[in-house]
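ok trying again, last paste got cut off:
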Amino acid sequence: MLDPISTVALSIVIAGIAVVALSPRFAEPLYRVFLFEPHKYPHGEGDWNKQWAGAQPCEDVSFRTKNGARLHGWFFPQTNAPAAILVHHGNTGNIADIDVIIQTLLRTGVSVFVYDYRGYGKSESSPSVAGVVEDGIAAYDWLKQRVGDQPIVFYGESLGGAIACQVALARRPKALILQSAFFEMRRIACENYPFFRIWPADLFPRPYFHSARAVNQLQVPLLVLHGAKDSEVRVHHAHDLIAAATGNDKKLIVLPNTDHHEIFSADVDLAVASIAEFVKLVVNPAPNVVPNQAGDPSQLIDRMRSQITEPLQAGHQ
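nice, full thing came through this time. structure:
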């Protein structure tokens, strides 16, 4: 028989082992439901036939990760595009569900490559934290081979912002655009699910999604877009991300009427003008001008409207 002190000590040790063993780092599969909500083909709310694209050329793409998983994507080339944007989408749905993002980015004149993480859409396997980062690296490698020396800009939506930051540490882009992105994994987990507070950051999955640390290290041009009314990833994440970023070529655009999923409907003109001006400046910077000194994009909307191609026919909202 153990004495009372030994019994208490043993109970504490057992409880500690259980907390560690059941932590997001060591029991990641238990928590993937909080991170990933994939829609496999043909499910989802989007149009897999891309009727919204009209006459816009689109290449159906299949490529593999380093571990052999086959991934699927769409590449939308544009003539005389100043850059190609690689889109890392959010945690829900698949590429057929983000037609509004695709259409909006095409309006800025760039080529666009969107892909599905493993387990999403037509991509094989099932998602994991390390796996989706590997997927993003494979997508970059495919796009780099396709566009050659053309500048590549990363666009990360929500969870895709964290993935874009991790991929950027391995494959440096010309610039980085983060939409509705969070500061770091533990903070957003604790804000939305308070029980995660029992674990320190060291007990969260690896690679650790710390976007603020990444933008501090990367020192690439950065545009942060965030809705003032975002109820899922609150706007203070955007302010803290831009504060963490180093260098002068960074800009924060707070969209006044936008919630988490409304970024290209509530404030579409401001969003499009901001992205177009940012890409223009980072690809062909004017002498002695950096993006955060180029003026308020809200004052550029009328000028940018005359430079941006007409929107594609309306699609899924």
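cool. Confidence is low (pLDDT under 50) at residues 288-317. The radius of gyration is 21 Å.
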